[in-house]
Structure formats: C-alpha cells, structure tokens
Amino acid sequence: MRRKIPESTLPKLNRSQMITADGLQKLREEHDHLWKVVRPDVTAKVSWAASLGDRSENADYHYNKKRLREIDSRIRYLRKCIDNFKVIHYHPHQEGKVMFGAWVEVENIDRGLKKRFRIVGYEELIGNKDYISMDSPLAKALLNKKTGDEAIVKTPAGEFRWKIHRIEYEKGGASDF
C-alpha cells in the first residue's frame, strides 16, 4: 500500500495562477464532464468487473481502477485550480499596453517573422495554438509595452528583437483581431 504524501509537502509549480474568464469556464466544464459523465461510467465498469469474482487476473478491473484514480486526480487538480486561480477580467486601463489576456501581433525584426497570439495562464495553453503562457520569455519581455515598442527576448537560442504592431483585448466577446 502506498503512503499518501500530504499536499502541504508537494512541490508548488513555478507558474502564475491567473486565468481568463473563458479559461476558467473551460476548466469548470471539464470538471463537470469528468464528475458527472466520465467518472460514473468508469465507476460502473469497476463495479461490473468486480462482480465477476477473482480480481487478481481481471484486466478490466485493474484498468478501470487505474483510470478511476487518474480521473479522481484530475478532478482534484481542476478543483484546486477553480478555487485558487485569480480570474483576470478586461479593464479599460489595459488599453494600449500588453497585459494578461491581450491579443498581440508582433514581428521578429531579426527574421521578419510575424506572429499573433494571446497571453494567458498556463492552464489555457492546451489545445490553443495561438496562446502563449504569460510565464514564457516572449510574454515576459512584452508585458507593459505599447504598440510600436520593441522588446528584446533572451532565449537559449540567443537574443531576438520583437516589435509590437497591434494590441487588442476581448471585451466580453470574441476579438475582431
């Protein structure tokens, strides 16, 4: 039997705990789906497999028990995120500056490469190719800059200069960007 490690001794991740309202809504939807749909289904499969008798060589039982532990772990993690993350809403003082939640269009001056992305929290990155973490070197270099400003980004591959061409925020709906 495994010894449970108290949560207070678990390492804390070195990333921001901010999230957009849309990001929080997606976490809630995932939590609700896991709790109301997926978990009951897997629990029923575990019960069915257990009813067959000998569990020592019952692959269905072992697989679904493992899956149930993974689901429960994800549900706990999502609950912590939902309870502890700070939701950052749009505010007019953000206009004209790169801040959390901004859609930014930039150009790599050294390579002529243009990019468009939204600066968000880590939990919003999965499945969103146009999002970057606010903890990334590029986002950190761009924060509080204005349209027309340049930022120097230091990466393991070297230093790159980026020029900001456009900044926009979602104001309760989708961006026109």
TrEMBL record:
InterPro entries: GreA/GreB_C_sf, TF_GreA/GreB_CS, Tscrpt_elong_fac_GreA/B, Tscrpt_elong_fac_GreA/B_C, Tscrpt_elong_fac_GreA/B_fam, Tscrpt_elong_fac_GreA/B_N, Tscrpt_elong_fac_GreA/B_N_sf, Tscrpt_elong_fac_GreB
UniProt entry tagged with the keyword Transcription: yes
A biological-process GO annotation: DNA-templated transcription elongation
Tree of life domain: Bacteria
GO MF, one annotated term: RNA polymerase binding
UniProt keyword annotations, A-Z: DNA-binding, Elongation factor, Protein biosynthesis, Transcription, Transcription regulation
One Pfam family, short name: GreA_GreB
Domain Transcription elongation factor GreA/GreB C-terminal: 94-169
Gene3D superfamilies xref list: Transcription elongation factor, GreA/GreB, C-terminal domain (3.10.50.30), Transcription elongation factor, GreA/GreB, N-terminal domain (1.10.287.180)
Residues in Transcription elongation factor GreA/GreB N-terminal domain copies: 18-87
Protein biosynthesis found in the keyword field: yes
Family matches, as SUPFAM superfamilies: FKBP-like (SSF54534), GreA transcript cleavage protein, N-terminal domain (SSF46557)
Protein function: Necessary for efficient RNA polymerase transcription elongation past template-encoded arresting sites. The arresting sites in DNA have the property of trapping a certain fraction of elongating RNA polymerases that pass through, resulting in locked ternary complexes. Cleavage of the nascent transcript by cleavage factors such as GreA or GreB allows the resumption of elongation from the new 3'terminus. GreB releases sequences of up to 9 nucleotides in length.
PANTHER family noted in UniProt: TRANSCRIPTION ELONGATION FACTOR GREA, TRANSCRIPTION ELONGATION FACTOR GREB
Identification of the protein by name: Transcription elongation factor GreB
